[in-house]
Specification:
This protein is α/β, with parallel strands linked by helices. About 45% of the residues lie in helices and about 10% in strands. The chain is built from eleven helices and eight strands.
Amino acid sequence: MNQKHSPVRLGLCCVFEDQPIQFRTTTAAYLSRLGARDGRAHRDRLVEENFTTLARAITCCHELGIGAFRVNSQIIPLATHRDWPFELNVLREGELGGLLETCRRLAQEYDIRLSMHPDQFVVLSAHRESVVNASLAELEYQAAVCEGIGADVLNIHGGGAYGDKLAALARFADNVDRLSDAARSRLTVENDDRTYTPGDLLPLSRLTGIPLVYDVHHHRCNPDALSLAAATEAALDTWNREPLLHISSPADGWDGPKPNRHHRYIDPTDFPDAWRALSSPVTVDVEARAKELAVLKLQHHLTSQGTN
DNA sequence: AGCGGTCAAGTTGAT
DNA sequence: ATCAACTTGACCGCT
């Protein structure tokens, strides 16, 4: 009966299970075997293919009623590899620039929220300067992609603790200042399942203005003094745009040997009550191995529950 | 077509 | 010491 638009926008992470949509990748070893010229040409071909695929992925999300899509870090394979650096200016020029613009316009037209999630090698809390430098370079690369395709989130974890979380987070905060505006304005930090809890990250978030992506599954694996409701409220408060949340379910149940492993689907009882009561819009990325099938199933559960 | 070996990077905790 | 886990097995090259 005149149902209000749900304030929860569900997001798909990186890949599809059933749809014929696949991103390609390659290895440094293979490119080297091809030689400098042919290696570059091959990678360029993959990049063009991948952004074409991204446009299809966005359209597919629209058709399926999925509201957000996380773009794989490898969309430009080996972008910051020492032997195969990718020239970022190329993203704004010519045919490739046009492809990125197509993605951006499609996402805008269909209201598909795009994000990126650099992986575990990006560590702004690292001691080693070489690790920090590589991390900054990776963030700048992904920020340039985000800018081209209109993604507003570049999400990373706190990284290592090295036996002293406060000192590590202080290094993180210092290193944030070394980022360009394009990277810094998109950067977010997420609680993880081993080291940094929401309570650990909130001070960093408030200090730097970097929003907190609240992952409720990680919080259940790696809890702190905050309740789910309190962590949700505090996390939402760090956002100057639509907040992003993450959800998943344990592969073998909460009593299984490895609860941090992700299930194929989301158990609806894992969806926090505090999230059902939200009145302002949020994005919830669904981290489940059945990919879009899991998103659709959760979507169905949430909406059918909302209408009866 | 099927299958085995290979693949940039960091850190933690289970085995 | 080794290895799986982390947003995800995909790819080549051999049979």
